[in-house]
Specification:
The protein is of the alpha/beta class and 328 residues long. It is built from ten helices and 13 strands. Strand 5, helix 5 and strand 6 form a beta-alpha-beta unit. The longest helix is centred in the N-terminal third of the chain and has 22 residues.
Amino acid sequence: MKILVTGGAGFIGSNVVDAYINAGHEVLIADNLSSGKPENINPKAKFYRIDIRSEEIRRLIASSMPDVINHHAAQISVPASVGDPIFDAGVNIIGLLYILEAARNAGVKKVIFVSSGGTIYGDADKLPTPETYPARPVSPYAIGKYTGENYLRFYGKQYGLDYTVLRYANIYGPRQVPYAEAGVAAIFMDRLLSKKPCRLNRYPEEPRGMVRDYCYIGDVARANILALTKGTNEILNIGTGIGTYTIDLFNAIFESLKRNFPELPDELKAPQMMPARPGDMKMGCIDSRKAEKTLGWRPEVDLKTGIELTVKWRLAVNGKKATKGENR
């Protein structure tokens, strides 16, 4: 199967590309490298440095005629979307429309669209939250993702375009960058390895921080493989169904780093408490039983194991940098 992965040089997209290639598929990557990294690009994939808001993406889809488009390219930061909602909409809504128009004209068989189970339900009063719960987005980022889902429904009904929407929880794992709320695990690791104190954003009534559903990248990559042939016109949560306070995530990271990096100062064990940021949800945790029924998918990596795997990857990367004199 020929698959075009937009955002395939980014954290999640590159892991999905690797999974597709390991499964024997032909993969093309479209990424403008605004946040993706060249070192994430699988050498077996064909790479095109393209912005999804350009005519170039239409030409690439028309000429390559992929069977499936997996759309990971996005503006990923909730706070950034609050600060610049026009830019957010330009990437996450207009960019998607470029993809969908090109897909229908090229006869693409299916689009896999990455949405946000971590933000789209708002502060739901039912946790874990199922797909049947009404969308109540409270940030431009979440609004954009929900708008994208509705455009997919239109293209499905109007043009018969097959699609699967994957509503991700908060994803973490190897290659994650210390950027945006979704990158909080990477932010904690970066600061601790630099022997700097961490900051924990919270609302006054909850000193433990926000509640989030943290799902390991390897599990997410498996969901993307299954979605190639299953989940027609379905919206599916991809998460663990387990809510974790930010302080508990921090503690898991600190303990794993301390085991593997003994020089870590003990005084960094207490993060600085900071106020919540604009657009921050208090609680988020999603029910993925529909994905189990539809895709045959369920999460396999628990938080402690996933953090340990990520810490060891990060330390290995730092070690490689140190040998090149890049890490001071």
